[in-house]
Amino acid sequence: MAASEPAPRGPGMTWKRALAHAVPRELAAEIETFENQIALKKQGKLDDKLFAETRLRRGVYGQRYDNGRRNDGVAEQSLPYPSGDLTKGPETLWDAPGMQRIKIPFGGLTAAQMRVLADLAEEYSDGVCHVTTRQDIQLHYVHLEDTPALAWRLAAVGITTREACGNSVRNVTACPLAGVCPDETFDVTPYARATSRFLMGHPDTQEFGRKFKVAFSGCGGHACGLVSMHDLGAIATTKQVDGVTRRGFETYVGGGLGTVPYAAQVLDEFVPEEEFLPLAQAISRVFARLGEKKQRSRARIKFLVAQLGIEEFSRLVREERARLTPDERWTAHLAGVPAETERPLAVARPLNGGPRPEGFDRWHRTNVTAQRQPGYAVATITLPLGDLTARQMRKLADLAETYVKDTVRLTVEQNIVLRWVADADLPALYSALADIGLAEPDASTIADITACPGTDTCKLGIASSRGLAAELRARLARVVQDGNEAVERLHIKISGCFNSCAQHHIADIGFYGVSRKVGRYTVPHFQVVLGGQWDQNAGAYGLAVGAVPSKRVPEVLERIVGRYVQERTGDESFRKFVERIGKRVLKESFADLATVPTFEEDPSFYSDWGDPRVYTIADMGVGECAGEVVEVGAFDLAAAEAQVFEAQIQLEEGDSVRADALAYRAMLLAARSLVKQELMSVSEEPNDVVREFRARFHDTGLFHDRFAGGKFAEYLFHRHDHPPAVTPDAARRVVEEAQLFLEATHACAARLAARPVSAVGGAVSL
Amino acid sequence: MVAATDDLQRVGLKLFVADPARIDAREVVPVFHRWIQTRALDHLLIDVADYGHLDEGPRVVLVAHEGNFVLDNGDRRLGLAYYRKQPLERTLADRLLAIGRIVVQAGVRLEQEPALGGRLRFLGEELQVVANDRLTAPATQAVLGSMEAALAPLLGRMYPEGAYTVGRGTEPGERATLTVRATGSLPLATLAERLAPAERPPRQA
Ligand code: SF4
Q1: For every residue of A429-491, which 3-state class applies, written as one string?
Q2: What is the pLDDT along chain B (205 residues), one digit of tens a residue?
Q3: B chain contacts of residue A118, beta-carbon cutoff 8 Å
Q4: Cα distance between residue A245 and residue B170, in whole Å
């Protein structure tokens, strides 16, 4: 039976049987193995941790509340699932719905694939497809036992979920305009595809201590590939060799956002195209061999590169490369590269003076980009919060078939682009998109906010990034309408926690979720991050300037943007403006908004956007127990906050040594604020503070974050045990780490305050 | 003989809102959260997903283990849908009856929510039934016919006078869908009464 024939359906049929003919043998074997592993786990024959990593490598993630507990705003409820204590990983209940991540290499989709994604969202999820910042699709509320069926259906249209999560090579991303961009050096699509295929399941990529992300960019100037924030990044470049133009890649390693961002470093300014895959293999081997395995928080390749230094890392890679046994897959794809260009469906025709539907001009201004090929354009579908419904996805597949065929791509801004639209077809396409609710304008503007799942579904979420993004979107659409181009071009990115999945470090204005204890309550807050750079492949990272209550963020944003509009000189960019004005001054302009009214004055501050529950009410019911000591701690913690902010200012002013010293001092102060809860007489001597902190809060696990473990405490220990940082990069890292250490201290203080008197750790010793 | 849809478990059933302009879907978010707090439904209620930013399809989802309750704007018609996820016993006709009861009861409860001030009303005379399983029940005439037959007992209870029509959805790519329209207008509370399980006769002394 041909792959295109409809699968047999009906009673007693399974997707496996129905699609056996359409799934390549290797993929089928993998899915069968996963099915068997699910069965074995259900029978209790597989270890929890092992199964967790197994399912993660198939893109099957946990989701918030999957430990069977949920705070409903009044009390913590247990969720008594029918399978009881049966788990699918540590603290992850079998029946609890989870998230399915689906890797889409370079974001490229065909109409047939879009239809299957739509079907899966309807049948196994909640009817919504979510586009991620790494060109994946995510489905939420999926049951583990449905995941094999889902995998069969994806495999039948050429999609695998293999290595979508876990300690593996994640989705290989690339510019969504690759092949049609007027500014690109050459089309990176075939190289991204080949890299994805070559590294997936490769024996040399199976022993990583953490994930490994690869990105391709067609040029160095724009943001589309975001190469600087990747473990391995490649920017297309050419070189004249013996009078012949050779293709290659400026190759970067060791970048990454996460809690503490690292800018990737140049490994090689020109890696010839035939050398890229062996180089990627050699890098993988070095990472697998020398990368940290035990301490997850330092296991990304960025730590290894920073620790070894780029020269030594590069030497090791070259050594490894020399040892590799030649593999024909290194170059097999190159023969097809010249021919691998997309063919337009429609003949190029200009957008003439014909009638334009209402709203078309605004949409055209923000959502249409001229292609390198005359007469064709790329149309961007703006997806609010990266979401589209199953039906919209299906209808969009129909439109793709009508206007462009299989030239659809997902973008890192959580949108979708249709490439190769004949200019003359744009009005009709716009009308058709409007019919299915997908003709929103404002793509890539301040209103096109990127947000991670946050507290909606992510287990690590601290604040509602999506709720805030929805609120800001609604308010900012007006700003774009007003046509202030400088403001319109700003990028806002919101992460639900410090992990930076929404890439808040590279936004003009970024936010990440934190919490603050106010009286007996915990209040959702966001740290404001300023100074990041989206262009130049994520050219610079912003720094947190201060936390504000979640409900005040719109006002804070208004003030920051307001000042930019008022005080901008010439065509000064926002980043330059922040540099000129200074973070201290900008922070002062919203300092009054950092306060939180009492619960009685305004309870709305105690809920997050879009979620009416009182925020982490489990933190209530505090014994009078820790009241006093927390007050003492809070005082020191406030001093620590001031120090870390000053550290940022020093960093900005180029005094790395002072920035490092201040950040270190801030960590010591914060640690001391906790120690004082048990030992009021602790001295200020760093060795004393660290020793007491280690014994009382680290070794006891009191300071440990539920998910990150002792990672934040390690920041203090590491800095305490090492000489001061003197380079700007190293100092910057210490400042970032100090900021996170302070956040962890806030969280720890809140946890302590919630404990009954007897559990706080005995009497306070004076 | 085995009917085409005997194995069908994942069924969706949707009621339509009478006057959608009077209600903002997001008003239902706190209501669903409260339902979780008070364990208002006979389901294991897990979470609320807010898709108020979407124009079409699900707007607010009350996620439960057994099935999801969705304030749904599919086809740009606001309604309350219930999508069953976990299997139910017996025949498809029995399952449809059970699912009908679940969605109608949830609808009545929403209508009575004080926070919504009586602005949310459902049409008792219109209903959509979706086979949410393209493997077991693809959108063929055979499947639609078999679904229609299995739906008859539920419709018999809902509209005992038999004054209704059933339309078949055949849009390419979409799931097998039946649309039921009864004549006249019917409050949802009446449907709920009609669907209530029969009282057991009192025991003889
Ligand atoms: S940034 Fe935090 S909340 Fe957002 S998806 Fe990542 S881990 Fe979750």
Answers
A1: HHHHHHHCCCCCCCCCCCCCCEECCHHHCCCCCCCCHHHHHHHHHHHHHHHHHHCCHHHHCCC
A2: 456 678 899 999 999 999 999 999 999 999 999 999 999 999 999 999 999 999 899 999 999 999 999 999 999 999 999 999 999 988 999 999 999 999 999 999 999 999 999 999 999 999 999 999 999 999 999 999 999 999 999 999 999 998 999 999 878 889 999 999 999 999 999 999 999 887 665 554 4
A3: 173
A4: 55
How far apart are the CA of A138 and the centre of ligand 1, in A?
14
Q: Which residues of A touch B49 (CB under 8 A)?
A: 126, 128, 140-141, 456-457
The partner residue sitting opposite B132, judged by closest CB among A118, A122, A140, is A122
Instruction: Give me the pLDDT at residue B202, please.
Output: 57
Domain A181-336 belongs in CATH node 3.30.413.10: yes
Kindly determine whether residue B138 and residue A9, on different chains, have CB atoms separated by under 8 Å. Answer: yes
Q: Percent helix, strand and coil across chain A, each rounded to 5?
A: 45, 20, 35
With a 6 Å cutoff on the Cβ, whether A454 touches ligand 1 is yes
Contact A9 B134 (CB under 8 A): yes
DSSP B87-142: --SS-HHHHHHHHHHHHHHHHHHHHT-GGGTT---EEEEEEEEEE--TTTS-S-HH
pLDDT one-digit tens code per residue, A339-393: 777 889 999 998 877 889 999 999 999 999 999 999 999 999 999 999 999 999 9
B76-131 residue pLDDT tens: 999 999 999 999 988 999 999 999 999 999 999 999 999 999 999 999 999 999 99
Pick the closest to residue A277 from A162, A210, A179, A197 (CA basis): A197
In angstroms and rounded to an integer, the radius of gyration of the C-alpha atoms of chain A is: 26
Contact A80 B44 (CB under 8 A): yes
What's the pTM?
A: 0.87
Atom of ligand 1 nearest to the CA of A500: 1
Looking at CA atoms only, how far is residue A384 from chain B in angstroms?
Answer: 7
A151 dihedral zone (left: phi>0; alpha: psi -120 to 50; beta): alpha
Q: Is A453 in the pocket of ligand 1 (CB under 6 A)?
A: yes
Q: What is the residue extent of each domain of chain A?
A: 16-102+137-155, 181-336, 447-617, 620-766
Residue of higher predicted confidence among A416 and A535: A416
The chain B residue lying nearest A613, using CA atoms, is B33
In chain B, the N- to C-terminal Cα span, in Å, equals 44
Bridge partners of B73? Answer: B57
Give the atom of ligand 1 at the shortest distance from the alpha carbon of A458. 8
Q: What is the pLDDT of residue A766?
A: 27
Secondary structure (DSSP) of B129-196: EEE--TTTS-S-HHHHHHHHHHHHHHHHHH-TT--EEEEEE--TTSPPEEEEEESS---HHHHHHHHS
Q: Quote the ligand 1 centre to A452 CA distance (angstroms).
A: 6
Residues in chain A with CB shorter than 8 Å from the CB of B52 are: 470, 610
- Predicted pLDDT at A3: 44
Contact A437 B52 (CB under 8 A): no
| Homologous superfamily assigned to A447-617 | Sulfite Reductase Hemoprotein, domain 1 (3.30.413.10)
User: For residues A572 and A580, what is the distance between their CA atoms, to the nearest angstrom?
Assistant: 10
Query: Is A62 near ligand 1, meaning CB less than 6 Å away?
Result: no
Secondary structure letter of residue A709 according to DSSP:
B
**pLDDT for A387:** 98
Domain assignments of chain B as residue spans, ordered by start: 5-194
Ligand 1 centroid, distance to B31 Cα (angstroms): 27
Please tell me the class of the A620-766 domain: mainly alpha
Number of Cβ pairs < 8 A linking chain A and chain B: 125
Write the CA distances from B164 to A735, B124, B126, B180, B182, integer angstroms.
Answer: 70, 12, 9, 7, 4
- Helix, strand or coil, per DSSP, at residue A715: helix
